[in-house]
Amino acid sequence: MILNSLQQDFTAFVDRQPALPVLAPAFFFEEMFVTTKDAVAEPISDHLPFDTFWFVYQSSNGISRTIQNFALVRDREVRLWIIASENKKLVKTATFDLDDPASGEYRFSESSIRETLPELRLAIDKVMNHEQETGVPTFLKRLNKARNKAQAKSIPPYIIVKANRIVRPSVSTGEGTAQRPHMRSGYTRVMKKSGKRIEVQSYAVHGGINAPRDYRVKG
Fold it and tell me: Using CA atoms, how far apart are residues 72 and 130, in angstroms rounded to an integer?
């Protein structure tokens, strides 16, 4: 039920927004996210699956309403749109950088980012650790036929992140290989709009250099 609603609403949204990267990978999550607020808006330095992608998920504040979230991540900048259950209106709520979320632009209040950041952390963790499958819903097949007739490219199959099936972390590099556990060096990031310089700290990928190795014997 969650997936069907998310996929239909997201498909209608991106099809009406030609300026958005409609062909970027879109991850859909089977279960609803219920998280607590971050105390402060700390940066997210986790490894990301692609340079440009979508996280599409449903969340709850644990009290009453549910929210559909369409989070576009492009070069570590996040743009977030939501549809709240009580009014069904699509609203763009935030634009911020994962390395400096506190300096973003927020439609409601800056404190709202403290709800979104733990959701994004949870989504990243699930993408890196949970089993996935791809699929093309029937309504997307119909839409792609219409897009092709209009000389537009097909929206690619959606990526479903399974709720309870966990696999050993493995991240594609785009060349058919998986990244080994290692340390990613820190660097200085210059914000596009303000020119502000952000020091991004070093962090571990798949447990870092001390992670257990997975050796295989050929023969």
Answer: 20
86 vs 60: CA distance, rounded Å: 12
In angstroms, the first-to-last Cα distance of the chain is 47
Half-sphere exposure of 215 (CA within 13 A, CB side): 2
For residue 103, CA distances in Å to 53, 82, 188 come to 22, 20, 17
Residue 71 CA to residue 50 CA, distance in Å, equals: 14
**Can you tell me whether residue 7 is helix, strand or coil?**
helix
Q: What is the CA radius of gyration of the chain?
A: 18
Task: Report the distance separating Cα 120 and Cα 116, nearest Å.
Answer: 6
Helix, strand, coil % (nearest 5) of the chain? 25, 35, 45
Sequential pLDDT tens for the chain (219 residues) = 688 989 999 999 998 888 889 899 999 999 999 877 877 778 887 778 899 999 999 998 655 578 999 999 999 999 999 998 777 888 999 999 998 888 888 887 666 778 888 899 999 999 988 999 999 999 999 999 999 999 999 999 999 999 876 765 444 434 333 445 555 566 676 666 667 776 666 655 545 545 444 434 444
Contact 85, 70 (CB under 8 A): no
Interhelix angle 138-149/2-15, rounded to 10 degrees, is 10
Q: Per this entry, what is the length of the chain? A: 219
